[in-house]
Amino acid sequence: MAAIVKVDNVRKTYEGGFEALKGVSLDIEEGEILALLGPNGAGKTTLISTICGITVPTSGAITVGEFDVENDYREARRLIGLVPQEINLEPFEHVQNTVRLSRGLFGKARNDAIVESVLRDLSLWDKRASKIVALSGGMKRRVLIAKALAHEPRVLFLDEPTAGVDVELRKDMWTLVERLREEGVTIILTTHYIEEAEAIADRIGVINNGEILLVEKKDALMARMGQKEMRIELAEPLDAIPEALSGYNLQRAENGCRLIYTYDTAAERTGITRLLNDLQASGLVLRDMQTSQSSLEDIFVGLVRESA
Predict the structure, then answer these.
(1) Its pTM surpasses 0.70
(2) Can you give the residue range of the structural domain that contains 256?
């Protein structure tokens, strides 16, 4: 599928010499959901702000729908919807007017049916005549999302959209995201809730220290880097791992009542059968065994640790 957003060797250096982006290149495919993960200060918000034309890159090029974000700013920005982290709304304006005005700012003709549809999708229709100042924090977050959708963007950026919000909004948000994806909208989100990225993203990007560490399809990433753990509960605790088992890199847990064995799911042989035989030969009595697949969070933490 063709890329709707192209980032080519983009650098951003702030006054004082801090380099927030270090030659970032990234193609975002039309109609996909890309989750951009990274610790605080990794460059996620700077990258989004640069693509949206809020921050000017020091060097490199960015296009959205083949429009250069610097030379064709208005055309590029018209294709983009942005939900920022910060709540920045006119406090004494009414909800419906706020959303309607956002549509007009992007050169779209008035269309109350679209505004109503967006407000209903976000459970804001009953609040349409309310002033922003009278809304709860969660409702204000919904208004931000409504503003970003009012002009029917082809690319939607969600910068920590569910941070600190209630479970109901989070559920509504992801239902809406899935519907937008079905309509062909490209969605890029940053999130600290890695389980959300694992649940809805098509591809995962990891950024740290202003550099993209990887961009890969979620399922392929999990298969390539995922590991499984086998937790072995013993009938009697171990003070130390027997010498005969030293080659398995076992870990003691729970004061020696449990052994943890990690193995690669893609390996030709897991070594489990040989391990069980050697456990029996060592005179250890097993009470129970459980296995678990490593999560996207485990993979993310490992990548960031390696790049630190």
Answers:
(1) yes
(2) 227-293
